[in-house]
Amino acid sequence: xxxxxxxxxxxxxxxxxxxxxxxxxxxxxxxxxxxxxxxxxxxxxxxxxxxxxxxxxxxxxxxxxxxxxxxxxxxxxxxxxxxxxxxxxxxxxxxxxxxxxxxxxxxxxxxxxxxxxxxxxxxxxxxxxxxxxxxxxxxxxxxxxxxxxxxxxxxxxxxxxxxxxxxxxxxxxxxxxxxxxxxxxxxxxxxxxxxxxxxxxxxxxxxxxxxxxxxxxxxxxxxxxxxxxxxxxxxxxxxxxxxxxxxxxxxxxxxxxxxxxxxxxxxxxxxxxxxxxxxxxxxxxxxxxxxxxxxxxxxxxxxxxxxxxxxxxxxxxxxxxxxxxxxxxxxxxxxxxxxxxxxxxxxxxxxxxxxxxxxxxxxxxxxxxxxxxxxxxxxxxxxxxxxxxxxxxxxxxxxxxxxxxxxxxxx
Length: 411
Description:
With 411 residues, this protein is of the alpha+beta class. It has nine helices and 14 strands.
């Protein structure tokens, strides 16, 4: 089964590049005339600075749980209108593939700059991965033919690795770390970027989901569906790539304000955006309705029993909310950057609250848990709500779990 799926996954991956490059457009979509509009490479919604009542995340059965709710202040940010799609994530995977291959091939695929070399992207985008001569030069990036059903040499998805590097400001800001070298707080780790397509098989035993494992990420049919099977680390790597190789590059081309960062939302930001998006929604009573099956897609708190989704759907297939965001209550659950910590609401700050505990390299299970928000296509109607909250290990991947991004930009 694994080899059978691997054959289709890799073959589809190699042919996906042509349509994905055509389907992903870099639109200027901020709803006002400003330099900021020219710096964002995907459709976003502006979320203004504001205050809202953040829900209690402790024991909801406690008689004092309502007393623990409190107003929090959230700084403004931009949030992607939809979950990141297969096509958008595939552009990231193709960039990683081409950059690794170009450096391995050398010659016309790289440009020498002083004592360093850079990828010649004009030539790298033309690499023919079905050419035996090209494959023969890629060495261990290519699978042993004996491991494929076709007995042909193909790229190994496990070798598509992105190197992520950043600075840990929270650690650097601690008083006990005063005077230490800045390099002590630089973090580096690598991430295999190809989605876990076999999550479709593992998530649902005794189910006929092989077609989704083979086709969901690779077929053009699903290009505008939310990417799934990505871990928190992979989602963070995508945000890092978006910042360094899309936003900054577009800012440079348009001579806009420098700076800005794409990242996963904090739980507070996600919940605040959801509260604004649902502001005009009227809470519905559960039970059979005669108004059709739009309740689930409208991000309302209840849905029609028995009329849920069977798989993820087109990211803009439902009506958008009051703030222009789609599918916060369903389609796929979404990663946040916030660490899951029991009782964390008792000590988090009221100004841009967030909890960060541990690092991506932490071995403690407790330190590796990240908050997940929103319902998904596999949930019962009761859990298809923006209030749905759970957690997963940062290396976990599921067929019902994706992500959207937020962007901070200089004013």
